[in-house]
Amino acid sequence: MTRSASQMTPDELARACAEAMWQNDDASRGLGMSLDHVGPGTATLSMTVEQRHTNGHDICHGGFIFTLADSAFAFACNSYNNIVVAQHNSITFVAPGKLGDRLTAVAREVARFGRSGIYDARVTDQNGTLIAEFRGNSRAIKGTHIPD
Q1: Coiled-coil segments, which residues (predicted)?
Q2: Alpha-carbon span 17 to 95, nearest angstrom
């Protein structure tokens, strides 16, 4: 018997929403990302930089770093059982990701107000070196992940 969203704790709800999203997230899974943690307003995703992720400078293409941060942002802002999409995102690249690096994006809620939210995601490598800082603005639309 499946519990409704209103019967779940905030952590259970965040995990249930993430599981529902992950099943359909062909982009994140297809790029080799893993969903490592999710909680109310937070999510951690990681991926290993493979040859297919490198650019003409033989470093991780910025688009893949952005996508990792954006995916962490998506799971963080969708953790309350509302369908939420990106309204605006920006990223600052600090250091290159290199072939073989394990990059981790940790997204955390900064503020949630009305249908909008602000989230920051920090991307680091396996040594804790800062690779990029990401800020995402979210907007809730109609719908839920889990029936209430």
Answers
A1: none
A2: 32
